[in-house]
Specification:
TRI67 protein, 6-stranded antiparallel sheet, repeat, alpha+beta, Immunoglobulin-like, elongated
């Protein structure tokens, strides 16, 4: 305890050297490391610290001062780092504030750009609607003017003929009657079939599909984390959603969960149904795809892969799909004109309009020989139903065969005509009535189309060199009801 007090005296004194607590005449000159106290020579001679580690007092003083200075330097460095860190945090506060304002401004600008783009697109779409309306109005006005002129000419001719008929002079009458009869016949022939039908309908075949855009808007969000971009992983086929219907296959897939790599699109591949090479049948962002117009009674292999800016990912597992042995179809409510009325599980069709409207079948044919029959359930007032085939994008507000997307036979109660591109050919005697059956034979091996009424071929083969993908098609008005009968 006394040694400790002497140590304090040595640390606190500066002008007078402290003396040993046990030997008043001796100054401290050594330092016992073991006892951690200063000692004098006499203490050493007496052997009190004989086996201890004893060092010169001045050397130990300098050593401890150096250690303390070094420790202080370390603390000073940490204090300096802390001050710099505080400055950094204060700068970070300012940067967060500034960046927040910048991001808000950028977000507002991006959203405003989207709104502007949508506004511009709305203007474009409105322009299309306006043009379509003006076109329809012009066509109708032209038809009104043309019909008015024809009607005026016919009325004038009728009035003149009535006056001539009143002529009591046979010789005078016979001098002009031949020319007048021919003129009346020519006037009658000018009212060709279809001349008294509107060239356009009041309906606008313009449908705006805004659902994908709405989904994109709902999914619009920030990318919270940034990962190194690599190729996408293997897509997972959703086998419970993969199916076949007739000669169409539907495939669905999704990306594995917790996949952070962005996907820009997918590539769906299908073989030829005969074990041949794969070919791309779809490239896009959707995760569900239906392929129509495949071969019946065939086995197809399908696979899908994803891609992004880094490249194309690996293929999924291959799924095997079997198409139907025989074509089976109903009328398709999803693509039919809205005036078409379907019943009997979509196997019976009629119409609630006096104008002809088109309905397609749910099957698509591209190969093989296909035959189906339709039963005329109701036939009133001698209408002209039309039977045949068409492309998926056929015009549906007029008689089948009036555009270049359909090949048809239209028939009344006495005769029939074949029609494609509004060209009427092969007038054939023999019509339909209630209870009649109309058969359609599509031979894509010979690329021909033939029609039958009540089991008998109606005229020659109607069309040849038909190639591509075709849907069964029918046009009728409210005076007719037709049902599908059989397939082969």
């Amino acid at each position: 305890g006394d040694g400790g007090g002497g140590g304090k005296g040595a640390g606190g004194g500066g002008r007078k050297l402290p003396t040993c607590a046990e030997h008043d005449l001796e100054n401290y000159s050594m330092y016992c490391v073991s006892c951690r106290c200063p000692v004098c020579y006499q203490c050493l001679e007496e052997g009190k610290h004989g086996k201890h580690d004893v060092k010169a007092l001045g050397a130990m003083w300098k050593q401890h001062k150096a250690q303390l200075s070094q420790a202080l330097n370390g603390v000073s460095d940490k204090a300096k780092e802390a001050k710099e860190f505080l400055v950094q945090l204060k700068n970070l506060l300012q940067q967060i504030q500034e960046n927040g304002l910048d991001y808000e401004a950028c977000l507002v600008a991006q959203c405003d750009a989207l709104v502007d783009a949508l506004t511009r697109q709305k203007a474009k779409l409105l322009t299309k609607v306006t043009k379509e309306r003006e076109h329809k109005l012009k066509v109708v006005w032209d038809q009104i003017n043309h019909c008015t002129l024809k009607l005026r000419q016919s009325t004038g001719l009728m009035e003149y003929c009535l006056e001539v008929i009143k002529e009591n002079d046979p010789s005078g009458f016979l001098q002009i009657s031949d020319a007048l009869i021919k003129r009346v016949q020519v006037s009658q022939e000018q009212w060709v079939k279809g001349a008294l039908e509107p060239k356009v309908s009041a309906e606008f075949d313009l449908t705006l599909d805004s659902e994908p855009l709405l989904q994109s808007i709902h999914q619009l969000d920030f990318i919270q984390m940034k990962f190194p971009v690599t190729v996408p992983p293997v897509p997972l086929l959703q086998l419970e959603k993969c199916c076949t219907r007739n000669n169409s296959v539907t495939l669905a897939w999704r990306m594995p969960p917790l996949s952070h790599n962005p996907v820009e699109g997918y590539i769906l591949e299908l073989d030829d149904g005969d074990g041949g090479q794969f070919r791309e049948v779809y490239v896009g962002k959707e995760t569900l795809c239906t392929i129509d117009g495949l071969h019946f009674n065939s086995t197809y292999n399908a696979r899908v892969k994803a891609f992004n800016s880094s490249g194309v990912g690996p293929y999924s597992k291959t799924v095997i799909l079997q198409t139907s042995d025989v074509a089976w179809f109903t009328f398709d409510p999803s693509s039919a004109h809205r005036d078409i009325v379907l019943s009997n599980d979509n196997q019976t069709a009629t119409c609630n309009s006096y104008d002809d409207r088109v309905v397609l079948g749910t099957a698509a044919f591209s190969k093989g020989v296909h035959y189906w029959e339709l039963h005329v359930d109701r036939y009133d007032n001698h209408p002209d139903p039309a039977f045949g085939i068409a492309r998926i994008n056929v015009v549906k507000d007029m008689m089948l065969g009036k555009d270049d997307k359909a090949w048809a036979m239209y028939v009344d109660n006495n005769r029939s005509w074949f029609m494609h591109c509004n060209s009427h050919t092969n007038r054939t005697e023999g019509g339909v009535s209630k209870g009649a059956t109309v058969g359609v034979l599509l031979d894509l091996n010979k690329h021909s189309l033939t029609f039958y009424i009540n089991g008998q071929q109606q005229g020659p083969p109607a069309f040849e060199n038909v190639e591509g993908v075709f849907m069964p098609a029918l046009s009728l008005n409210r005076n007719v009801q037709v049902s599908l009968l059989q397939f082969s």
